[in-house]
Amino acid sequence: MPGVLTRGPGPVTVWLVLSTVSPGWLAAQSLDRPLFQEVERWGRVVAPGVEHVRLTGRAGPDAAPWRAHLPRVDLRRSRLEVALALDQVVGQEAPSSAVRRRGAIAGVNGGFPVSDDPWNVVPGDPDGFVVVEGEVVSEGVADRPAIGFCTDGGRQRVEVVRPRVHVGVRSSDGVLEPTGLNRAREEDDDFVVYTPRWSRTTLAEPGGV
C-alpha cells in the first residue's frame, strides 16, 4: 500500500496520497463534537521539524482506552512524500522497511489495499487515488477525496481534493477508453491499462491478453 514518508529540507517530489475518508464521513464531522476524549499526550523531537507523538484516548467514558503513535511534521522544516511498497503498485511492505530503504525519518501507512480482489493476486493494490512523482499510479474510487501535498511559494502545503481520472489510449483505430488503470481485471471483457509501476507482469488470469 502507499505510505507517507517525511524527510528533511529538500524539493517536493510527490503530490498526492490516497485517503480512505469518505465524503459523507468528512461532512458529518464537527469541531464541537470531538471523536474521542484525549487522556494523555506524550511527544519527543526525533529530527528538526519532526516530532513523535504518542496519544492515548477513549471514545467515551466507559470505552476502553486506545493508543496511537503519530508523526507531527513542521512543513517549514521537513517535507512529505509518497512511496509505494517495494516501489510498485503490487506488493506489501512494512512502513519500517520502507523508511529504512528510502532513508526517511518516519513513515506511516497511507491507506488501505483493495479488499475485494476477485482472484486475490494483487496484494497491496491501493484502494483509491495515488500519484507518485507526478504520475497517476492508481485510479480514484467514486467521489472519495484524497489528501494532496503540493508546493506554494517554495513551501509545502496540504489540501483535501476530489480527483477525477480519465484514462485514454490512442491507437490507429482512434482513441480507446479503458475501464481502469493499474488494477485487477474484473470481467472477461475488462480493459485495463498497466504502467511499469504496476509490476513486472500484469498478473492477468488465463484468457486475458
The helix tally amounts to 2
> How many runs of DSSP E, i.e. beta strands?
15
* N/C terminus separation: 26 Å
Write down the Rg: 19 Å
Low-confidence stretches are 7-29
* Percentage of β-strand residues: 35-45%
- Shape from CA axes? elongated
Strands across the major sheet, in which order? 6-1-7
Helix/strand structural class = mainly beta
Give the H and E element order: EEHEEEEHEEEEEEEEE
Name the helicity range: under 10%
Mean pLDDT: 77
Structural write-up:
The chain is mainly beta and 209 residues long. It has two helices and 15 strands. The chain has helices spanning 23-28, 95-102, and strands at residues 2-7, 16-17, 37-47, 50-58, 66-73, 79-84, 106-109, 130-132, 135-138, 146-152, 155-161, 169-171, 174-176, 180-181, 192-193. Strands 6-1-7 form a three-stranded antiparallel sheet, covered by helices on one side. Strands 2-10-11 form a three-stranded antiparallel sheet, with no helix packed on it. The chain is elongated, with a radius of gyration of 19 Å. It starts with a strand and ends in a 16-residue tail after the last strand.
